[in-house]
Specification:
By secondary structure, the chain is α/β, with parallel strands linked by helices. It is built from twelve helices and ten strands. The strands form two sheets. It has a six-stranded parallel sheet with strand order 4-3-1-2-9-10, sandwiched between helices. Strands 6-5-7-8 form a four-stranded parallel sheet, with helices on both faces.
């Protein structure tokens, strides 16, 4: 029986949105979920810091957990370090990139918002995606470290003032041409965790898109024909640093089958 896990990696709990989509498609998949709590948040770090940290950390994780596949369930880490990680590791690595292509396919007004971290929205990778897949669209961007913090707070069960979501979205809608946005790319895996709050705070109906379903299909494709255990079993939740804040996530993590906390 092949019990090699799929390892999901993020700076915090945002990757749970990707994990949920993968578990829906592959319910027997053993999981190791890793949150780089010692390095959180990534969105306010420099490209050099992330480029140095992520490949080294994933190398250690690959040695310890021997996964069949790694998912970098973080847009910031993927847009900066994905190529380096793939070069360093001899196993499949799936990245997470802003879902600009599907957004362009459904936008009627041809004005798209990209909502991510500061580090993600300034990447040339995003320029390339916009040029290749949304060349006839106006693509407006806004980076928000606060929204990452709000998503983490929600997982901790903390009540959040809806006005904070409205203020963040004004960073998109308040730009020139922003009133015509009809589709928003959640270009951070944290943001789908507060999708309902974002939709309620938008000044008019918009469609939010992210890449989680596509990542789940990619995992299924890359593992096609491989054996899975009869049941997924208890998933590991690994933190690079643990404290009262990370331990308080236990009830939320349990909803994803992650009941075995560990520290790297």
């Amino acid at each position: 029986m092949d019990r090699r896990p799929v390892l999901f990696f993020d700076s915090g709990v945002g990757g749970l949105s990707v994990l949920a989509a993968a578990q829906a498609l592959l319910p027997r998949m053993p999981v190791v979920y890793v949150a780089d709590s010692a390095g959180f948040p990534y969105g306010t770090k420099s490209e050099a810091e992330i480029a140095a940290r992520v490949p080294a950390l994933l190398g250690r994780l690959a040695e310890r957990y021997a996964p069949r596949l790694i998912v970098i369930a973080c847009n910031t880490a993927s847009t900066i370090a994905l190529a380096a990680v793939r070069s360093a590791l001899d196993l499949p690595v799936v990245g997470t990139v802003p879902a600009i292509k599907p957004a362009a396919l459904i936008s009627k007004t041809r004005v798209i918002g990209v909502l991510g971290t500061d580090a993600t929205v300034r990447q040339p990778y995003v320029d390339d995606l916009a040029q290749r897949f949304a060349g006839d669209c106006t693509v407006l961007r806004h980076g928000s470290a606060e929204l990452v913090a709000l998503a983490e707070a929600k997982l901790h069960g903390i009540a959040i003032d809806p006005a904070r979501f409205a203020a963040i979205l004004d960073g998109l809608f308040g730009q020139a041409g922003g009133a015509r946005i009809d589709t928003i790319v959640n270009a951070c895996t944290h943001f789908p965790l507060v999708a309902d709050e974002l939709a309620a705070a938008a000044p008019h109906p918009v469609t939010f898109v992210d890449g989680s379903a596509g990542i789940a299909r990619r995992i299924a494709f890359l593992t096609a024909g491989q054996d899975w255990p009869e049941t997924a079993g208890d998933g590991r939740a690994v933190f690079t640093a643990r404290d009262a804040t990370t331990d308080a996530l236990a009830p939320a993590l349990a909803r994803f089958g992650l009941t075995r906390p560990e520290t790297l």
